[in-house]
Amino acid sequence: MQTDPHLSDRTRSLLTKFQTRSIVLFPLITSNQWYGMLTVHFGSPKILRPEDLGYFEKVVNQAAAAIYNFLLLEAETKAVEKRKRQMNSGQVPCRNLARAAYPTDFNQGFRHNPAGG
Predict the structure, then answer these.
(1) How do residues 45-71 score in pLDDT, each as one tens digit?
(2) CATH of the domain at 37
C-alpha cells in the first residue's frame, strides 16, 4: 500500500496510522439499496481464501440487513409519531370517522334480524 498509486497521500497516512497492510472492501447492499462499505483491515499482507470470502459475505449480508431493518423501524416510528400528533390535534384519519361518529354502534356491530323485528 505504501507504493499503490491509487491511494491519496491522506488515505495512505490514515492507513499507516492504523498499521493497515491489507484491506478488503465489501459493499453493503440489500434490496437494491446501497448503504455503504464494510472495510476489513489487516496488519500484514493478506490473500483471502474462498472460504474467507464466504464468511465475510455472510457478515456483510447480515450487516446490510440490520441497516435495512433499522431504517424500516425508524420510518415506522416516524409514522406512529405522526399519527399520534394527528390524533392529539383532532385530525382523525378517514378510517376512524365511523368510530368517531357512532362509537357505540360501531363497537357493538350491526345486527341482522331476518324476521324483520
Answers:
(1) 888 899 999 999 999 999 999 999 999
(2) 3.30.450.40
pLDDT, position 112: 45
Measure the CA–CA gap between 96 and 72, rounded to whole angstroms.
Answer: 25
Cell representation of residue 76: 415506522
Candidates 46, 50, 28, 47; CA nearest to 38 is 28
Contact 93, 86 (CB under 8 A): yes
Task: Cell 465489501: give the residue.
Answer: 26
- Separation CA 36–CA 42 (nearest Å): 20
CA dist 92 and 85 (Å) reads 10
Query: At residue 109, what are phi and psi to the nearest 5 degrees?
Result: 85, 175
Does the residue 115 lie in any domain? no
Return the C-alpha cell found at 103.
362509537
**Alpha helix stretches (DSSP H) within 18-96:** 50-88
